[in-house]
Specification:
Layout lengths: L11 H7 L20 H35 L5 H82 L4 H22 L11 H39 L2 H37 L1 H9 L5 H9 L9 H15 L1
Helix pairs in contact: 1-6, 2-6, 3-4, 3-5, 4-9, 5-6, 7-8
Amino acid sequence: MATARLDYIAPWWTYWLHNFPHFNFTFQHVDNTFRPGEASYQQSLVFLACISAAGLVLSLLLLSVYLTSVCCCRKEEEEETKRPDSCCVSWTAVITGLILCSAFGVGFYGNSQTNDGVYQLTYSLHNANHTLGGINSLVSSSLGSMEVGLQQHLKRLDEIFATRGDYVQALRFMGQMADNIIRQLTSMPELSKAKVDLSAIADQTDYVEYYRWLTYLLLLILDLVICLVACLGLAKQSRWLLTMIMVFGVISLVLSWGSLGAGTATAVGTSDFCVSPDKFIANRTKDFLSAEVTHYYLYCSQSLPNPFQQSLTIFQRSLTTMQI
C-alpha cells in the first residue's frame, strides 16, 4: 500500500519575510526568487540591511535633539515641582525596565532557538552528504567491478575455452550483457558534478553560527549590564555614571541596529529559499541532472514514474540472462 506523501509547507513567517519588497541600489524592483549568485538579488539583501542604517541615523538624531533640548531648556525649579518630576521619572524607569527585561528574555530565547535550528540544519546536511556519498560509492564500485574484474575474468575464460566454440559463443554473449550493464551504469548521473560538498557547507555554517550566537549573546549581556548600571546611576543620581552609560548606550545602539540589519537580510534570504527550495535546487542541478530526476527525488510522490526504472529493468534482465 502506497504511503501518503507529506507535502512540504513552509512556516507562515517565511512567507511574510519572503513578501518583503526587494529593490536594488537603483531602486528597481527585483524578483524575490532565491538567486544568491546574481548581483541584483545580492543588492536587494544589502538594501534591506541598509534600512537599519536609516533607523540608526534617525535614532541618533532623536537622541541628539533630546539631549540638546535638555541642556538648553533646563532651568531652576522649585522643590515642590521637583517631586512630581522625580516620581514621573521613577515610574518611567520602572516601566522601561520591565519592557527591556521582556525584550532581553525574547532575545535570549530567539538566539537559543536560532542556534538549535542551525544545528538541525547542519545535522541534516551531514546526513544528506553521507547518503549521496554512499550512492556515489556504490555506483563507482559496481562500475569498477564490471569494467575491470568481470572483463578480466571473461578474457581469461575466453583464452581457456578457445577450442570450444559453444563456450566461446556463450562468453561473447555474456560480454555483450556486461557491456550493456556498464552502459546503464555510466548513464547514471554523477553527483560529483554538482561541485558542492554538503559536509563542507555544514562545517562552514556551524562555524559562522557559533560566532553569530556568541556575538548576539555578548550584545544582549552588554545591553543588560548597561540597563543595570543605568538603574544604579538613577538611584545614586551619579552624573558620571549616567554619562558613561550614555556613551556605552550609543555604542550599544549602533551595534544593535547593525545586528538588526544583518539579521533582517539573512532572514529574508533564508525565507526566499525556504518558500521554494525546489526551484533553487533544480537550477543548480540542471547542467548534469535532468528535470525529471530532480522532480522525482524532491517530491517523492508514489504517482511519479521512476526515471531509472528502464535502466534498472535492463540491468536486472542482463544479470538474469548472464546467470542462466
